[in-house]
Amino acid sequence: MAEQAEPSKYDPRSNHLLARLKREDYDALMLVAKPVALKFHKRLLYQDQKVDAVYFPLSCMFSLLVTVDKEPQMEMATIGREGVVGASEVLQELGAIGLNLIQIAGWAMRIDADAFRRVVSCHPLIRQIVQRDQYSLMRQILYGAACNRLHTMEERCARSLLMTHDRACQDTFPLTQEFLSHMLGVRRATVNVATGALKKAGVIRYVRGKITILDRPGLESATCDCYQSVVKLYESQFAAAVQ
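and the corresponding structure tokens:
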């Protein structure tokens, strides 16, 4: 089970979706929300299984993976404080779209599924924000699929590292070769080639399962246009006026 956080350790409005809510909608959610500390590599919301809670990440990062024969095979998207996990499935009463695994440990606001549905039924603005976020997530998945088909391994690796760096809020974060292979959908040997090229270029350091971003502009120059496309997508969603 996730451990409850101390009130001084989190700020719910560090989640971009919660920060956009009107006061009455935000207060209604906070009445039923609980802060939780989520540990590195904790598995939540198993693919196709009933979703029992909604999570608004504050400082953690979820990795959304597709599973085959109950084993994670490939990362489809990452979700940090720009989004929400499990909300669309709860509102539609569907099983989890994939396995959600904590790739960056940290805090989140957790809301039981039944309580979330009750609040949303009285606060339609929350449903609208969830729908916008789901659209952005689907677009992120589509960009990732196209990137995996069209761009080089080094460009794809740089894109994945940049997206993780955005959500980690720090320059050093855990990332094993095994998980990076899930992110890129390739074998570990291929991962070694891609990370080796980025290390040689001096943009990252990779030691004992931890990545350090040494040269952010250099890493951005090593990636493809897909990264900026996803960034601009989320920025446009945040900037869009909620009707």
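(Above: one complete record from the training split.) Residues 153 and 194 are 6 Å apart (CA to CA).
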